[in-house]
């Protein structure tokens, strides 16, 4: 599925991570977050701008959720500079309402 429709694959991972976060299965959440980080690193070079934006949005959202799960809010704040760089890089490709 990755080679056929990478955007759909990324959305599926995002939905999986969101579902695991909301049902409170934190062990599986952490497992799939690590897996997703690996997938995004290997896939990122092959993606168009929209795919790279999805990688950025989904990965950063999952990382923030991971800090909520663990209660590691100070470590979560350390993500802000990286997120700001990504927001600046994709500012012309993002919808303001999302």
Keywords summarizing the entry:
mainly alpha; 5 helices; 98 residues
How much helicity do the residues have?
A: over 70%
- Radius of gyration based on Cα positions: 13 Å
Largest sheet: none
What does the average pLDDT come to? 91
The H/E string reads HHHHH
pLDDT < 50 stretches? none
End-to-end span in angstroms?
A: 26 Å
Number of helices: 5
Strand % is under 5%
Structural class: mainly alpha
Describe the structure in your own words.
- The chain has helices at 6-23, 26-43, 49-70, 73-77, 80-89.
- 74% of the residues lie in helices and 0% in strands.
- It is mostly helical and 98 residues long.
- It is built from five helices and no strands.
- The model has no long low-confidence stretch (mean pLDDT 91).
Entry summary:
This protein is an all-alpha fold and 98 residues long. 74% of the residues lie in helices and 0% in strands.
Secondary-structure map:
Layout (H helix, E strand, L loop, with lengths): L5 H18 L2 H18 L5 H22 L2 H5 L2 H10 L9
């Amino acid at each position: 599925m990755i080679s056929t429709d990478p955007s759909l694959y990324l959305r599926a991972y995002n939905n999986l991570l969101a579902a695991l976060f909301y049902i409170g299965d934190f062990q599986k959440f952490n497992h799939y977050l690590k897996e997703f980080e690996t997938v995004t690193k290997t896939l990122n070079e092959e993606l168009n701008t929209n795919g790279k934006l999805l990688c950025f949005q989904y990965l950063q959202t999952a990382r923030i959720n991971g800090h909520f799960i663990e209660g590691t809010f100070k470590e979560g704040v350390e993500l802000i500079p990286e997120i700001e760089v990504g927001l600046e890089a994709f500012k012309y490709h993002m919808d303001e309402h999302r």
